[in-house]
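Protein modeling request. Please complete all fields; requests missing the sequence field cannot be processed.
Requester role: graduate student
Desired output: 3D structure, C-alpha cell encoding
Chains: 1
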Amino acid sequence: MACSDIKKKKLTPKMKRFAELYVTNGNATRSYIEAYNKEVGDINSASYKLCKNEGYLLLKNEVVKEYIEELTSQRSPLAKKEWIIDKLLQIVNDPDSKDSDKIKAMDSILKCLGAYTTNQNINAKVEGTTETIIRVSIEDDEDE
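Delivered output (144 residues):
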C-alpha cells in the first residue's frame, strides 16, 4: 500500500510509475489506481476515495515531487502546451464539471491555439538598412 511507501525516502517502482503516469495525465487518483493496480467502484465508493487520498499523499511526498519535477523539466515547451490543452480538454469532457468551467477551459484552448490573435511576420526592406522582420498582431474585434 502507498502509506508504507510514502514514509520511505527511496522512490519505489510503484511510486516511480505513479509519477510517470501523473506527468502524462495530470490526475493523481487515476495515476494511483493504475500504478498500484487498484480495483475501484464509482467515484462515490470508499475504494475510490481511498485512492484519491493516497494519490494526494503521493503528490506531497518529497521524493515523488522531485521525480515529477525532473520528468516535467525534460519536456519540451511544445509538449507542455499539449499537456495543458489535454488538461483543459479533460475539464471540457468531464460530466461533473460546471458549465462555466467548461466555457473557461474552451476559451483557454482557443487562446492556446491562437484563435483570437493572428500573428504575421512581414519581411520589409528599408532603404539604407538591413532586412528586418516586423511582427504584426491583428486582434479580432469582439464588438462586431
